[in-house]
Amino acid sequence: MPYDDLLSRAHAHALDYLNALPERRVGSTATRDELMAALRTPLSGPGEAPEAVLDLLASQAPRGAVACNSPRYFGFVIGGATPVSLAADWLVSTWDQNAGIYVISPLVAVVEEVAGDWLLDLFDLPRDSGVGFVTGCQMANLTCLAAARHGVLRRVGWDVEIDGLQGAPRINVVASAESHITIDVALRYLGLGTKCIQRVESDAQGRMKPDALRAKLATLEGPTIVCAQAGNVNTGAFDPLREIGEACNAHGAWLHIDGAFGLWARASASSERRALIDGVELADSWATDAHKWLNVPYDCGVALVKSREDHRAAMTTAAAYLIQTQGVERDAVDWVPDFSRRARGVPTYANLRALGRDGIADLVDGLCARARQMAQGLAAEQGVAILADVVLNQVLVRFGDDDELTRRVVTGVQQEGTCWLSGTNWQGKAAMRISVSNWATSEEDAARSVAAILGVWRQVRG
């Protein structure tokens, strides 16, 4: 078989890469010019040996790829694929299914239907909600807000899918001062624009103030969408969702919750952690990622919408050449923006089934414990301050109460290589941002990373 040698070769390269993760430098070492020199060549006429191409790509990964799946990678909010989800993802590539409609892949349609049901059960959300597997929380937010746009206009007698936005009743969009940028981008894509957003004040932890929201809603008439947040990208803080949900329901507003990683707190075994997300069920739609805290390979986001009718109406399409189901079978194209798509729900199914409720709770709670461990270790050092309560897996750190010193520490840590993290600005101050999201991060990894960060800080302060 022509596959045998190449797949065996790829398997060996993959194991070399994975086995090196625990000890390798987390950041990349090669410059753009160096990678270009190794990889750029005129496209040949006859082509090259497949084995040589595979070997070339594999040879550049240790120096050119950032080890985002390292147990000491704390940048952005990026999980690392568990072994079972990675193995399932290999099967997805092997099967090479276009998961757009049932008739192309009954297997994937059923797997994703079951995975969607499990997620609704795990998060304890309305079981008849619509579910769509998308590329990430950007498209999950867009999908949910498209359903919201359809739903609030439908209530006032306007079909936006047929008649468009020209001449439509104006939609009020309300979001906190700390809403994630993907909300803004989704509104741009949906033709509503960012100017439509009416901002609500947030507190020192980044939580929307419910009194300010109620005051804002009292001034609004007509179709209204409110965007709340479960897990601030900097602090991990949760908007007071029950108060927000009750205010939205009283006003007749559609409530959307961006829970890119914070929605997974709903699966925690900790009553204190679950209390953070109390009231999430009052919303009309929810967006989250599986490639963050569920630790499946990129890419996989999830859009969940309480009204299946509004969800489907906003997404579905039809054409004479398609063979779409008229029965109980599930066509993914009814729930997501794209047609040709990878079977990205399969690794989610594999991880959910392999971990079970207890395993997912352990994953969430264990990484929260590692975040607290790192915060405590850093806070014990003179000149190091933790800027917000560590309620989840996010830690904000400032050094010497000085922007330039803080930025130098962030850069120094990235260059030192033990771990990798990024910087941010929080309420006008430069900060180091640590996100603990990888299933493999151990107490030892957290301690090594704290020691490396403090070593850089001591050098910087002189």
Can you offer a commentary on this structure?
It is a single chain. The chain has 462 residues and is of the alpha/beta class. It has a domain at 88-351: Aspartate Aminotransferase, domain 2. 44% of the residues lie in helices and 12% in strands. The protein has 15 helices and 11 strands. The chain has helices at residues 3-20, 32-39, 50-64, 83-95, 106-123, 137-154, 160-163, 181-189, 210-218, 241-251, 271-276, 308-315, 345-379, 403-416, 443-461; strands at residues 130-134, 172-176, 197-200, 224-229, 254-258, 285-289, 301-305, 384-386, 394-399, 422-426, 429-435. The strands form 2 sheets. It has a 7-stranded mixed beta sheet with strand order 1-7-6-5-4-2-3, sandwiched between helices. Strands 8-9-11-10 form a 4-stranded antiparallel beta sheet. A hairpin with a 7-residue loop joins strand 8 (384-386) and strand 9. It is globular and about 60 Å long. The mean pLDDT is 96. GO terms for molecular function: carboxy-lyase activity; pyridoxal phosphate binding; transaminase activity. Keywords: Aminotransferase, Decarboxylase, Lyase, Pyridoxal phosphate, Transferase. The modification N6-(pyridoxal phosphate)lysine is found at residue 292.
